[in-house]
Amino acid sequence: MKNFNFQAGTKILFGKNKINELADEVLQHSNRVLITYGQGSVVKSGLLDTVKSKLAEKDIHFEELSGIQPNPRLASVKEGIKICREKNIGLILAVGGGSIIDASKAIAAGFAYDGDVWDFCTRKAVPSSPLPLGSILTLAATGSEMNGSAVITNQETQEKLPMGSDLLRPQFSILDPVYTFTVNKWQTAAGTADIMSHLFENYFTPDMGTDLQDGIAEAILKTCMKYGPIALEEPENYEARANLMWASSLALNGLTGTGKMTGDWSTHMIEHEVSAIYDLTHGVGLAILFPNWMKFVLNERNAFKFVRMGKNVFGIEDADPMVAANKTIDAIRKFFDKLGLPSTLSEVDIPETHFVEMGKKACQFGPIGYFQRLNETAITQILEMSK
Amino acid sequence: MKNFNFQAGTKILFGKNKINELADEVLQHSNRVLITYGQGSVVKSGLLDTVKSKLAEKDIHFEELSGIQPNPRLASVKEGIKICREKNIGLILAVGGGSIIDASKAIAAGFAYDGDVWDFCTRKAVPSSPLPLGSILTLAATGSEMNGSAVITNQETQEKLPMGSDLLRPQFSILDPVYTFTVNKWQTAAGTADIMSHLFENYFTPDMGTDLQDGIAEAILKTCMKYGPIALEEPENYEARANLMWASSLALNGLTGTGKMTGDWSTHMIEHEVSAIYDLTHGVGLAILFPNWMKFVLNERNAFKFVRMGKNVFGIEDADPMVAANKTIDAIRKFFDKLGLPSTLSEVDIPETHFVEMGKKACQFGPIGYFQRLNETAITQILEMSK
To answer: I need a labelling partner for A137 at 20 to 30 A (CA). Which of A156, B70, B74, B298 fits?
Structure first.
């Protein structure tokens, strides 16, 4: 187990009607709020009105930034920073899924920074003294509600890059599983694959002595595999939505990565290159790519890690480690199939055109991956396997 | 899954030589520290000297409170409060195991309270504005390093009672597994049983829909069962000590209790009555009592929970749930035997004399337990089964 620091201090308010505690949480930070949201689902569902009335009841002033898109754009972030500065905002309240929370983190970080907020993504600057942030989650997927990471898309440069700091963890997040009852099958499946992908990224590393973390990851994976299909069949099954929602937060709040030098993260970086150009749903891209990444990196030296997951999560046993490992990868692919997710990029209309370019851009800061280092040729090969 | 709030904000600094970050952490809170410790093991090991020199290097003033005993006494707490007030202390630094950290929490809470600090244990008062607290852990057992609970013994009244508040969570805790290399076999075994008991308390509840939490508890249990015996055989096995140490914190930081109304906690309360009189090592008392509590409460309606643990942790399968449940309890008893822990109170020289009185005192605030309510007669019966 490697040395680590861990502090996941986000206050989680979990369960039915937790929105009733919103105003008191907000007032611990400020009485001037920027509400950020997306393209209308929180308007239609009535959640936005509820949020506004809860704030108004306690005389909390609010501004609004709407229209934040999936794979959130730099333009929205800049607009948010402008509003926060002009309106003397003291807290950002993200109402939505991971994209809304990610954009809000970038706004929070950019607020106190004189330069271009994109500098945080290109590693030219590090966030300091961000605005505080709260979230009201409406999609179980990214884990953004309990971590300090964000991924922003720069349409001008066709780049999608991460930024992050422990300072960007939300101060509080309201997780009411009822808000996810209206999430459609496609997004429910993609969200489940996203949660599982985060667990894979931290699981497949060369670190040793991390039984505890890997065991916890296996438990969260089993939860996703039990409740993902139930949520698809019964969208208003509270226990299924609740287990997925809490799984989303715990899968990527740092817990399963403790004691490891880092996660692997190459599959995420490859997916970012694809969705920077094609605006693919993140979890769908991951579900297509991950089994192929696994097949690509599997070898006799690292097979034991796939064997372990196969045994503990899928009940797979085989005397030959390579056979057991391949069966495990096939079982993961089969589970994604069961969720109704595509297995090839062509199914989501993504052609081979940019595969070489994607490989190059993924390696713009050098080879990627930790379980196995990948250069641009390797990445292009994984994309070819996924076509 | 029931509604919950969760915020485990303690900053964990985990690993070899993390003591090098001590002074910077301390200075985020104060430059006037009270170091609390026990009966000499941290003096012998040289850790106390290291702590003092790290503080002195950064001109941090410190006072000392030594001699805190296992099952920490109210007298030590009052002495600590007096020093903090007289010497204008701004942070308490606990160096030791759970008893030292527990006593320090009580000191932290009592500092700002005009009445008798024992009021927090008798539920006459609730902590507010406590002094900040940091810890340097030397024993993997109680989880006190990452939670807001403490248990204090009042020798005058022969009472051992809990107090707690989220405000009493340490601000930071340094967890260097190397500091536990010198923990002897008895304490290593007792610590492992203590960690497992915390998981049992939160696992055996009547709440439904908590697959995620129960799966995480099972993963931590399996970690204890793998590494407890290794730590006994190879006291300087870093991975074993590291896994047990991080398991200790995660077993009782609130995580496995999320989504449940409360844990059961009756076995802990019974053990407190025993050790209030006999000064028994906490984990040893729990290892004796827990399998008997399990046998006592097991019935056909709740057997499924034992069956689940049996299957997922011990690989036990049996078509008859009551048979599987009993096999699970026997497997737990057998594992404690393997750790070299006693299975009866008579082995640790505790006679039947006070069994009836212990039952009465455990119920001083009413019947105890959540998985099954226990009155004083039931408690006396469990003690009889453990004699």
So the answer is: A156
